[in-house]
Amino acid sequence: MISDAKVHPIYGPNKLKLGIFSQNCSHGCAITTADGVMEVTWDKNVSLAQAADDAGFELLVPVGRWSGFGGVTNFSSASFETYTWAAGIGQATREIGVMTTSHVPVIHPLMAAKQATTIDHITGGRFGLNIVCGWSAPEMEMFGATMLEHDARYEYAAEWVTILKMLWTRDEPFDYEGNFLKVTKAVSLPKPLRKPHPPLMNAGGSPAGRLFCAQHCDVAFILLDPDNLEGTKARIDAYRDFAKAEFGRDLKIWAYGYVVHGDTQKEAEDYLHYYAVEKGDDVAVQNLCHQLGVDKVITDPAAYDRFKFHFKAGYGGYPLVGTPEYIVDTLQSLSNAGLDGLALCWVDYHAGLARWNREVMPLLRQTDMRLGD
Predict the structure, then answer these.
(1) What angle do CA 118, 83, 185 make, to 5 degrees?
(2) What is the 3-state secondary structure (H, E, C) of the chain?
(3) What is the pLDDT of residues 104-126, one digit of tens each?
(4) How many CA atoms lie within 13 A of 77 on its CB side?
(5) What global pTM score does this model have?
(6) pLDDT score at 304
(7) If 0-12 CB within 10 Å is exposed, 13-18 middle and 19+ buried, where does residue 108 land?
(8) With contact defined as beta carbons under 8 Å apart, do 2 and 193 qualify?
(9) Domains in the chain, ordered, with CATH?
(10) Phi and psi of 24, rounded to 5°?
(11) Across residues 22-51, what is the average pLDDT?
């Protein structure tokens, strides 16, 4: 068991935590043919993780993918599996938190509990689990799994995580039978180092997803509306207040954002237009939005085009586009709105992180957001 004094990095002293998002997938988060996009090589993943670790970042969040989205890029077609990725990255780093992203329909909770515990021991208690209920029908079909109706996916996940937590906390074998899952005389030893268990993350945004995350998870991973910063605080407060009122739980709120640095605002915006519009893969982003069901939900053509633009730019993340000073001001607004953490992505992750550490981090350390560095 780890010392109670050694908190998980996501609970560390910095007001606004920082992470890296989707470094394990080809192209990272940029659906573009521009040069410099993330390549899926182990050396590149390790060197990026170590650079983030050295800079004091708190978290690495991979994306669980099994197939690509077509188009000229076949976006995300190559990726490292996230349990084994987390084990390797955890061994190669010292302080940063390392997540696994797990699709619950395709892995049994017994296997997940054992694998997660192993990684938690490898990392000395720095592990965390991002739970995904499965939204890509083609990927589920690869496993011969049937896509459940939307709300039923979260009911399945609730049983899955209930078994997971029992395996992590109970010493004696137990039986469990739900509507979807059944285990008999189940037990898993050893237990995770992190007590009572590693932190759990979920990106549920629907009413069913919010209910699941508030009841069972420790971190909500949300998609922010870049055109409605004013509504961000109300949304974050509502999510956090719901978890507290309904389940007595203190929920951390994370999001992700794409970074485009520039010596001037115009330089950053021009490059964003270049890689997302001129070099963007429209076929891949259309396929992705179709699998997400966005094309059925957003009926206004202008709003749909705006949505697709942000997905080409950075998987729908919040835009941090401009000079280092502008980026810090934007982060301050998000922090003031109650955001606990932001996972970052770039077109070129290595060059982008190096510039972030060189130009943005010194400015962040002059604010109340990074006093713990």
Answers:
(1) 55
(2) CCCCCCCCHHHCCCCCEEEEECCCECCCCCCECCCCCCCCCHHHHHHHHHHHHHHCCCEEECCCCCCCCCCCCCCCCCECCHHHHHHHHHHHCCCCEEEEEEEHHHCCHHHHHHHHHHHHHHCCCCEEEEEECCCCHHHHHHCCCCCCCHHHHHHHHHHHHHHHHHHHHCCCCEEEECCCCEEEEECCCCCCCCCCCCCEEECCCCHHHHHHHHHHCCEEECCCCCCCCHHHHHHHHHHHHHHHHHHCCCCEEEEEEEEEECCCHHHHHHHHHHHHHHCECHHHHHHHHHHHCHHHHCCCHHHHHHHHHHHHHHCCCEEEEECHHHHHHHHHHHHHCCCCEEEEECCCHHHHHHHHHHHHHHHHCCCCCCCCC
(3) 999 999 999 999 999 999 999 99
(4) 10
(5) 0.95
(6) 87
(7) middle
(8) yes
(9) 9-364 (3.20.20.30)
(10) -85, -5
(11) 97
Question: Which of the two residues, 298 and 289, has the higher pLDDT score?
Answer: 289
